[in-house]
Amino acid sequence: MSTTPKLNDGISVELRVRYCECDPMRVAHHSIYPVWMEMARIELLRCQGRPHHLLEAEGVHFVVARMSMRFRKPARYDDLIRVHVRMDCSGRIKVNHSYDIYRDEQLLAEAQTTLVCVDASGRPRPIPDGTLART
Amino acid sequence: MSTTPKLNDGISVELRVRYCECDPMRVAHHSIYPVWMEMARIELLRCQGRPHHLLEAEGVHFVVARMSMRFRKPARYDDLIRVHVRMDCSGRIKVNHSYDIYRDEQLLAEAQTTLVCVDASGRPRPIPDGTLART
Amino acid sequence: MSTTPKLNDGISVELRVRYCECDPMRVAHHSIYPVWMEMARIELLRCQGRPHHLLEAEGVHFVVARMSMRFRKPARYDDLIRVHVRMDCSGRIKVNHSYDIYRDEQLLAEAQTTLVCVDASGRPRPIPDGTLART
Amino acid sequence: MSTTPKLNDGISVELRVRYCECDPMRVAHHSIYPVWMEMARIELLRCQGRPHHLLEAEGVHFVVARMSMRFRKPARYDDLIRVHVRMDCSGRIKVNHSYDIYRDEQLLAEAQTTLVCVDASGRPRPIPDGTLART
User: Fold this and answer.
1) Which of A74, A88, C83, C100 is the most buried (most CB within 10 A)?
2) Mind telling me how many Å the CA of D25 is from chain B's nearest CA?
3) Cβ(D64)–Cβ(D115) below 8 Å
């Protein structure tokens, strides 16, 4: 038995809600959640051994093709937020991720994305072997 | 027969992609689309006769509860973009919208949102009669 | 005598303050003003006959080296804002602009920038002849 | 003799440049620097013993009245940035800060701001005693 988080279970990143990310309703604007999700997803890539900027230098880019989000509770200025990201499945050119966004133990939002691997000019290309290794 | 756009058919807003909305891939970052969608949705509200700031002054706010997006083609810096928004259906406290985002006649992205009506403190409340009139 | 605006006198662009550009104080966050200024400055470049994306394709980029701003009155959500930009002077590799930001006749903010011309790799280079023509 | 950092000498915050903060030139857009500066400034306030949200609850807000920035070197995606902020002087209703922004030991940008203390409706008001204590 192990309680050690495995990469298979995904990773979490923590961040603090910025003042300018909040709108006149005094809550984080919903358009900032995809930014937080991207930060977590890129960090997952780094843990998988392939830093984002190295992949880009090799002409391997990922673009978001689909995104769905459900907002349950608002995040507020200065809240410490935890974004948990998990790779659900990957195919030849696509990869799916799931996200859970928490403040303490409270679930604020859930999301899913589908990314497509493209080359520097934006054309779909196969994901190179080992890019998304889940060792 | 009429080719005049009816409010039932929604409205379109045009905007130009800003330089800082584009990322190192030289395309509009996906997190900016919800901002464009909100601009169109608020304009629709204005056309429905209830400006957003008046509603807020009356304690009528709408928060995004669900959002799904499909990205088909990238938008690039300085592109002139047309965001078409349509109200799909509304219930007692929720309202659904659909969005199509174009550059010229090319469909770049599609999206749907579900908004929930809340009061100033964020608690769900009924949508006041006439707020989303589709005359 | 002529009341026709001359390019020497600069140009103005109009824009509407977006909801997500406003912070919990219900005013446009100060970090959005440089974005508005850039929009006006790029439009001035377009009027000077050299669209920004063509210049970039030729390896002519401008980066902001200095910026100073004075904020006099807040801009609020949905305000219609007018950003007036004027080229003050240009040298071999630098160009200075001034900005006045208005709501109706009320001056909200003033700003100045110094831009440096750089090549695609970010190294300073001379501004090509005719780029900033003030005919 | 002490090498312990004193509050008088200011504080530093570290942050990583986000992908969407970078523009097609592949560098952090200049409009994000005021956001980073605000993060550091608010953290300084927290160290001075008065968290930003408590001040706001008491009707004590600070708005940026003046800002000047000098950009020396670009910041790039995924760079680890250190923003050092120092309170220069404060008067009855105004306070001045200076900022130095580094990547490792390299100075990327310098900036200064003047903030004005205002009440919830935006009218200037005296800074309450002890708000900016430099013990």
Assistant:
1) C83
2) 7
3) yes
Distance CA(D18)–CA(D24), nearest Å, equals: 14
Would you call A4 exposed, middle or buried from its count of C-beta atoms within 10 A (0-12, 13-18, 19+)? exposed
- What stretch of H or E contains A124? none
Name the closest residue on chain D to residue A42, using Cα atoms: D19
In the prediction, which pLDDT does B123 show? 93
Q: How confident is the model at residue B51 (pLDDT cuts 50, 70, 90)?
A: confident
**What is the value of pTM for the model shown?**
0.91
Predicted confidence (pLDDT) per residue in A81-105, tens digit: 999 999 998 899 999 999 999 999 9
Q: Which of B14, B20, B50 would best serve as a mutation to test chain C binding (most C beta carbons within 10 A)?
A: B20
In angstroms, the separation between the Cα of residue C135 and the nearest Cα of chain A is: 38
List the A106-118 sheet strands across, edge first: A11-16, A80-90, A94-103, A106-118, A61-71, B61-71, B106-118, B94-103, B80-90, B11-16
Q: Strand pairing of B80-90 and B94-103? A: antiparallel
Specify burial of residue B111 (Cβ count, 10 A radius: 0-12, 13-18, 19+): buried
Name the minimum distance, in Å, from the CA of C39 to any CA of chain A. 20
Rounded (10°) CA dihedral C24, C73, C70, D47: -30
**Contact of B118 with B102, CB cutoff 8 Å:** no
**Closest residue on chain C to D115 (Cα):** C71
Is the Cβ–Cβ distance between A94 and A132 less than 8 Å?
Answer: no
φ and ψ of B60, to 5 deg: -110, 110
Taking a contact as any Cβ pair under 8 Å apart, which residues of chain D between 2 and 21 contact chain B?
19-20
Strand partners, B69: A67, B111
Asked if the Cβ–Cβ distance from D78 to A53 is below 8 Å, we say yes
Alpha-carbon distance C43 to D37, whole Å? Answer: 28
